[in-house]
Specification:
This protein is an alpha/beta fold and 531 residues long. It contains 14 helices and 26 strands. The longest helix is centred in the first third of the chain and has 17 residues.
Length: 531
């Protein structure tokens, strides 16, 4: 080989090495934000302004980034409901989120509102828009994916040197959605739990080219995960086996949501990275991807969490957002005419409530159910000695109450959905069947009741119920005698796995105008003054 050729090959090798620089690309995400705009140190909620500040800081560290959401952006928030959701597009524009998975709570305001995506908000940012990604929701009549979502979305990122990295996101929602959202809100839709087959079918659609042509492919799921006792991430879903088959080289990582758990590690046989950041914007989820700029090959993906920590002084768009939050807190009234900041009562001690308590009767659950019962007792002019049982599904209880002054907003965030109250006359036998199911509702949480003492056998099955109201002696409920049951509408239509047969339409009591669940609780606490 001549000196010239040796020199030429050495030069080409050097040029090749210089062209093969590696860069870091960050896929950032939040999950289960639930419109937690208002900071609350007592509830360990950092607030929306702190979330904006944290993400802006991360964008300085990772200038090459995409930011997305894993769903449940706004449901379960009394602040969101009371203010008409007008700050959601403002926040997502500030976070630069333009892609989101569909969560079960995305349906809380109905399919029409879901399609409009806050377009009627007076604060809708100019030039901002949001796309939902979900491959396994279908119109039952046509078998098509609804027009308001897409199975896949692709985001181009300009890399140093002029090349473009294509980042693709495929979306999935839990097949349990029909058990966790109002039936009327989901009318005409189906949710396929054959996740692997759904993703395979997407590859046959025109949108499949977005996945095939992408350099970085992320599965964005509103399907929950958790960390087991050995510290290993696991899927938490009735169709988890479908997810466990997913691996490389098609997928580079997973962003999950739904279970309100903190998860960061590797999952499935292929040990792919997965991140889920608790809820309420407690953490920013990060998949830090190493990319070869010459080949556009993704050589490594590392999962990380970054805690969102409030700062003493806000700046820029975070400060502007906080000013908007403060203004709405001051001027917004509930449907019952109460200002959000009004103090209702005082709590002698903090009353906790969390997803981790779902297999227990909680103090908050007892208070809420007592409020339901007393609301009906007052409306029906019943005697203090009359048996009125209040009950609630666990999922409606979203947060605890702080020690000290308890405001309208505190109560609203604890019980945000403001569902209709329903009243039934059920026999003791029917009540026992309901309680039996509710005390074994492992997936969605135990039935919450008030003034009801449950006797069980060695296997945990209900053998007898006793009522012990505020002004009544402990009394066994008789199998054939009828008693009043007061609950929220959601549980009566199949919510949280409860069968509608537990609440026969022929036995509903319809003669009374009752407030919503949230207003009933607000009124009850205001009467108590101290809890």
């Amino acid at each position: 080989m001549t000196h010239f050729f040796r020199y030429t090959l050495s030069l080409l090798a050097a040029l090749s090495l210089s062209a093969s620089a590696q860069v870091k690309v960050a896929v950032m995400g939040i999950n289960d934000f639930h419109a937690a705009f208002v900071a609350s140190p007592a509830k360990q909620i950092a607030g929306a302004a702190a979330l904006v500040e944290t993400l802006d800081s991360l964008k300085q560290v990772y200038p090459l980034h995409v930011t997305v959401s894993a769903g449940d952006n706004f449901g379960g928030s009394y602040f969101h409901k009371a203010t008409g959701g007008q700050l959601m597009p403002v926040l997502f524009d500030a976070l630069d989120i333009r892609l989101s998975a569909l969560g079960n709570h995305e349906f809380d305001e109905g399919q029409r509102a879901l399609a409009q995506k806050w377009a009627s908000s007076p604060l809708y940012p100019k030039g901002w828009s949001l796309d939902y990604v979900c491959a396994n929701v279908r119109e039952q009549a046509t078998g098509r994916i609804p027009a308001w979502t897409h199975p896949v979305a692709s985001v181009p990122l300009a890399l140093p040197g002029g090349r473009t990295l294509r980042v693709a996101f495929a979306g999935l929602i839990t097949s349990s959605t029909p058990e966790q959202a109002s039936a009327r809100r989901l009318a005409g839709l189906s949710f396929d739990g054959r996740y692997a087959a759904v993703l395979d079918s997407v590859m046959q659609l025109p949108e499949g080219s977005l996945l095939r042509d992408a350099h970085l492919r992320i599965l964005l799921t509103h399907i929950g995960s958790y960390t087991d006792a050995q510290g290993q991430p696991q899927w938490d879903d009735k169709d988890a086996a479908q997810l466990e088959t997913l691996g490389g080289p098609l997928w580079h990582g997973f962003l999950s949501g739904h279970t309100h758990q903190k998860v960061c590690g590797h999952i499935n046989a292929g040990k792919l990275p997965i991140v889920q950041g608790h809820w309420h914007g407690d953490y920013v989820n990060l998949l830090v991807c190493t990319v070869d700029t010459a080949t556009l090959e993704v050589t490594a993906v590392e999962p990380h969490h970054v805690a969102v920590t409030p700062k003493a002084h806000l700046s820029g768009k975070a400060a502007r957002l906080q000013a908007q939050i403060d203004s709405l807190l001051q001027h917004t009234l509930t449907e019952g005419g109460k200002p959000l900041g009004l103090q209702l009562c005082t709590a002698r001690e903090a009353i906790p409530q969390s997803y981790d308590m779902k297999r227990s009767q909680t103090r908050l659950g007892s208070l809420v159910c007592q409020a339901y019962a007393e609301t009906f007792r007052e409306a029906a002019h019943l005697k203090p000695s009359d048996v009125v049982v209040g009950c609630s599904h666990f999922g409606t209880l979203r947060a605890g109450l702080p020690q000290g002054p308890v405001s309208v907003l505190d109560v609203g965030e604890a019980l945000p959905f403001a569902n209709k109250l329903r009243v039934y006359e059920l026999t003791g036998q029917q009540l026992q069947a309901l309680v039996e199911f509710g005390l074994h509702n492992e997936r969605f949480g135990y039935l919450q009741t008030a003034n009801l003492e449950v006797q069980t056998d060695a296997q945990g099955h209900v053998t007898e119920l006793f009522y012990a109201g505020p002004q009544q002696k402990r009394t066994p409920l008789k199998a054939k005698k009828k008693y009043f049951l007061v609950t929220d509408e959601y549980i009566t239509t199949g919510g949280d796995g409860y069968r509608p047969e537990f609440f026969p339409a022929a036995q509903e009591v319809k003669h009374y105008e009752l407030p919503t669940t949230t207003d009933a609780f607000l009124n009850y606490l205001q009467q108590l003054k101290e809890i």
